[in-house]
Amino acid sequence: MKAKKILIVTHYYPPHAGGIEYVAQNQAKALAALGDSVTVLTSRILADKPCSQDKSATIVRVPAFNGFERWGVPFPIFSPSLLISLRREIRRAEVVHIHDAFYISSWCAAILARLYGRPVVLTQHVDLVPHPSRLVRWLQRLVYATAGAMVFRCSATIIILNERIGSFLLARGISGRKIRLIFNGVDDKLFRPAKPLEKQLIRQKYDLVENRKIILFVGRAAIKKGFDKVLAAKNKRYQLVFVGGQASQAESSQVRFLGQLSQPQLAEIYRAADIFVLPAYGEGFPLVIQEAMASGLPVIMSYDDGYDAYKLDQEFVYLLANRPSSDAIRQAILELVDDGARRRRMANHSRDYVRRHFSWPQVARELDQIYAGLLPEVSS
Questions:
Q1: How confident is the model at residue 70 (pLDDT cuts 50, 70, 90)?
Q2: 276, β-bridge pairs
Q3: Distance CA 148, CA 104 (A)
Q4: Exposure pattern of 250-270 as b/e (b: 16+ CB <10 Å)?
Q5: Tens of pLDDT along 78-92?
Q6: Cis peptide before 74, with omega less than 30 degrees from 0?
Q7: How far apart are CA 320 and CA 118, in angstroms?
Q8: Percentage of the chain surpassing pLDDT 70?
Q9: From the CB of residue 201, how many other CB atoms can be counted at a distance below 10 Å?
Q10: Closest Cα to residue 76, out of 112, 110, 100, 51?
Q11: Do 281 and 13 meet the contact criterion of CB atoms below 8 Å apart?
């Protein structure tokens, strides 16, 4: 299959941390490994240079205001130069791959791709996200009824991560022929189980407890992530370690806040942990769950009927009720703390599940086939 010129458009990209960011980055790496020429267009948040080149892609960064994120709304407002940069890169590309229809960069990319006759592939990561603010909920509905709906119409293929997102699209009149269920991949070389003695050394490096189980939470301090509920589930029998969220109380022997970490640092923390917990709701399928499983951790997560396609076995993945209480989270943690044999079975299953379902090379081949179907003259 001949190499293609792919433009990936995403509102954030590393070093800004988050699930969509790392999915886009790993997608670029995996497509480049197949021989495709990849450019990523994104915001300049947390980055120094407007344009850079790494081993997999050319990264084009556009200035943007990011003040809303401090209130839990990750929505950058791009400079007008976004249109200039998008026009240039879309004209060079053969396929435009947009990550989520909710963002200004996505709206502009869809319009310009249609103008210049470039096929659009959209990965829709979420549906309507539950939020405590009535204004934010109203704005979501407004976006998906207007600009978001336009992105859906412009997309030749829409990739979804679970069946709930598929139902969300069908309810908005999107043809089922456009929709493809493809799981995200995970870097199972970076995220791997700890080697003998490695867990102890990492705990010493990050000043974590050595004589109790470590329960790891990775994510923003957002209600939909279950941050506060996990925090309220603290117990003297284990240490809760939070990555990504800001400290909301003083640290103690029961609670540690490590803040934002790089991907290599995060991979180390997974290897230092014993159990991973994420009682999130309203998500696609959280990338951090995949990373935890790749790291060989037993996983405690919330049940979501949109995850049915993943065929999660409750014997090996601890599924809490949707929006569980802190008491339920604490009880689940203590059950696994007290059952070493079950933890080992769950850990072995996690790693095996990742190998069978979350391979980035396989995901890249599926994406490349989609692109080829949109460019029959390229694949001939």
A1: confident
A2: 216, 299
A3: 10
A4: eeeebbbbbeebebeebbbbb
A5: 999 999 999 999 999
A6: no
A7: 43
A8: 98
A9: 13
A10: 100
A11: no
Q: Tell me how crowded residue 379 is: count the other CB atoms within 10 A of its CB.
A: 14
How far, in Å, CA of 221 to CA of 242, rounded? 9
Instruction: Report percent pLDDT > 90 for the chain.
Output: 77
Residue 4 binned pLDDT confidence (cut-offs 50, 70, 90) = very high
- Look up residue 178 and give its two tokens: 């456009």
28-31-37-40 Cα dihedral, nearest 10 degrees: -20
For residue 37, the cross-strand partners are: 5
Using pLDDT thresholds of 50, 70 and 90, give the confidence band for residue 157: very high
Pairing state between β 64-65 and 77-78 = antiparallel
Q: What is the mean pLDDT of residues 268-280?
A: 97
pTM of the model: 0.84
The residue to which tokens 């003259």 are assigned: 377
Q: How far apart are CA 212 and CA 209, in angstroms?
A: 6
203: left (phi over 0), alpha (psi -120 to 50) or beta: alpha
Is the pLDDT at 74 greater than 90? The verdict is no
Q: How far apart are CA 9 and CA 189, in angstroms?
A: 26
Residue 319 parent element (H or E): strand 318-320
Is residue 18 within 8 A of residue 76, CB to CB? The reply is no
Q: 135: burial class by Cβ within 10 Å (0-12, 13-18, 19+)?
A: exposed
Q: Cα angle vertex 90, ends 89, 92, to 5°?
A: 65
